[in-house]
Amino acid sequence: MNWSAKIISHNGEKRIAVYFEKNKDLIERIKKLEGSRWSQSLRVWHLPLTIEHIIRFKLDDDGKRPIAFKISEQNFIELNKFIQQIHLKGYSSSTLKTYKNEFAIFLQYLKNKDVITCKSDDVKNYLFYCINEQKITEASVHSRINAIKFYFEKVLFLKDFFIEIPRPKKANKLPKVFAKSDVKKLFEVTTNLKHNTMLKLCYGLGLRVSEIINLKISDIDSKNMQVFIERAKGKKDRYANLPETILEQLRAYFIEYKPKIYLFEGQYGGKYSTRSAQQVFKIALERSKINKDLGIHSLRHSFATHLLEQGTDIRFIQELLGHKDIKTTLLYTHVSDKSIRKIISPLDSLD
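Now predict its structure.
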């Protein structure tokens, strides 16, 4: 079977397009690859520009070799050991993607220096370069540290390697949330039944975008009014309460769209993509004319905040959200209407 692949720009994103004569078996194989999508306009299957896909399709971007090929041969061997160990440890696909890309950037920085010979000073110099030359955020520095730390501790088994390497202080950012009236407006402008149902479940169950696209029909228990969230963040199962007001809409959705396995499926079967779900939210935000720079995850934040405002116990909210640490859930007390914003200044109480 003849095929070819090249890096393209599709909807403002770098993707790998794979060209081949129509073949059922090959289409099934492509569909199983992480992030694969069919473009009706381009008439081609395309995938995310990840290191694994770059390796798989042996890409060279018009003479400008991609990041995986800017790494020395010896360090490329270490990169594959690194990826293999992440798989063996059973980390999530999201963590795998982040770690391998962050570690590959570090290997690119090293050029011909073997990573296995690096000392703590080499890592410090790299982090100094990231902060002062690349001007990346504290969160991005932490992400790069985590990836490099994984290599030295979990691949090379150097437990004390990072003792002398400091971490920059993280900015204490609060969750961004919608007012209830704005949530209602988002639903009103989303007239497509599938999209409307998706957004309502994100908010009504407090789901992450990865959780909404991974929901299966079998996870919906309308008899007990519960939804099973399987292997969520941290590979932790949990149950969420199914809102009574969504039940009739869900039934109408089933009748119209006839999903087979996943609750929300793409045009050509299989689960809905993360990017498509995010696009659904983005369009709703634009149509509602809500002037806020928020993503689909803000529906989950709003769910938690509005529960708190209704008087729900913080530990019940922790369980519904699937938070491992109560400190994460307690962040919502800082944005709730029942918190500091309701305290009356002594200036307003002067006679």
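The CA atoms of residues 26 and 146 lie 36 Å apart.
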